[in-house]
Amino acid sequence: MTESHPLKRRDFLRGAAGVALASGMAAAGGAAPEAKAYVPAYFTAAEWAFINAAVDRLIPDDGNGPGGVAAGVPVFLDKQMQLPYGYGAYWYMQGPFHPDSPPTLGYQLRQTPRELYRAGIALIERAAAHAHGKPFARLDAAQRDALLTQADGGHLQEDGVMAAAFFALLLRNTREGFFADPIYGGNKQMAAWKMVGFPGARADFTDFIDQQGRKYPYGPVSIDGSRG
Predict the structure, then answer these.
(1) Contact 68, 177 (CB under 8 A)
(2) What's the angle, vertex CA 217, arms to CA 216 and CA 223, rounded to 5?
(3) How large is the greatest C-alpha to C-alpha distance in the chain, in angstroms?
(4) According to the model, what pLDDT value does residue 102 have?
(5) What is the value of pTM for the model shown?
(6) Any residues with CB less than 8 A from the CB of 85 and at least 6 apart, and which?
(7) Average pLDDT over residues 37-63
(8) Which of 2, 23, 120, 218 is the most buried (most CB within 10 A)?
């Protein structure tokens, strides 16, 4: 986001680490084959372009590590939409709904996460078309930042409450995808864990319990046993 926005990448990642810590054979010529491009199961092509463009602004590739797109966060988001989470299985979704209630009372919209994503993306896309005559993904970084900031503050004219709820969910899920175990689609090659020094799902840390301040010498391990 822009420098004027309260969310800076270093602070974003520092706070997010705590929240989320919830190869083929070589070709004949010696070069490894390119990975097959991911095809989203839930998001449409236009929504997929938005997701990639938005994630790129929330966690940009700034030289300190991979950005959100390179780390596979969009893949994580699409996969979550197909799981019980996406259908609101973990949320209380019975009425009455009071969208104007304070955030301390929890989620108050009737949309499931996948429905909120679809509606929120459409809101921002309409705002982008009205302000700039282009889809969100074709805007420059400053223009995308401005629209995301408006959504964050609930200042989109069409539906500020839904826009703010969508941005909050997108931001939280982006953090989760960046730091979650790679089996869920994001955090490719455990790059985010390596960046913050998180050892992953290692079963035994006994030898390091009393070695505060010493750098952990082993790389991270995924839940499935793969190593970074």
Answers:
(1) yes
(2) 75
(3) 63
(4) 76
(5) 0.79
(6) 113
(7) 95
(8) 120
Residue 11's pLDDT is 53
Question: Residue 1: pLDDT above 60?
Answer: no
Residues 6 or more apart in contact with residue 161 via CB below 8 angstroms? 99, 100, 109, 154
Helix/strand/coil (H/E/C) assignment for every residue in 17-40: HHHHCCCCCCCCCCCCCCCCCCCC
Whether the CB-CB separation of 133 and 123 falls below 8 Å is answered with: no
C-alpha–C-alpha distance, residues 168 and 171, integer Å: 5
Residue the block writes with tokens 């990975």? 35
Structure-token pair, residue 208: 């390091």
Domain edges within the chain: 45-201
- SS3 of 91-153: CCCCCCCCCCCCHHHCCCCCCCHHHHHHHHHHHHHHHHHHHHCCCHHHCCHHHHHHHHHHHHC
The token pair that represents 55 in the structure block: 């994630």
